[in-house]
Specification:
Layout: E1 7-12, H1 18-32, E2 36-41, E3 51-55, H2 62-77
Parallel strand pairs: 1-2
Antiparallel strand pairs: 1-3
Helix pairs in contact: 1-2
Length: about 80
């Protein structure tokens, strides 16, 4: 039986289109390795930023995952 997969949960301040969700999942899995990516609306209705949490056994350190996520978001917003 396989163990738990690492999970990355995003809490988004604004709705995310299906196309952006798919692109985000593919970029994250390409840069961080196999993982489950979950996108949820932020719990705070006044939220203005996207936050995330990590759970499960990651092969990378949390600092490495964070740096790779910064790179992913840079590639999404760069022209």
């Amino acid at each position: 039986m396989l163990g738990p997969r690492p999970t990355l949960t995003f809490y988004t301040a604004a709705p995310v289109t299906r196309g952006t969700q798919r692109r985000l999942r593919l970029l994250i899995q390409a840069r961080c390795g196999p993982c489950v990516v979950v996108l949820r609306p932020a719990d705070d209705p006044w939220a203005t930023a996207t936050t995330y949490s990590l759970s499960g056994p990651w092969q990378l350190s949390r600092a490495d995952v964070h740096q790779r996520l910064v790179s992913v978001f840079d590639s999404l917003v760069s022209p």
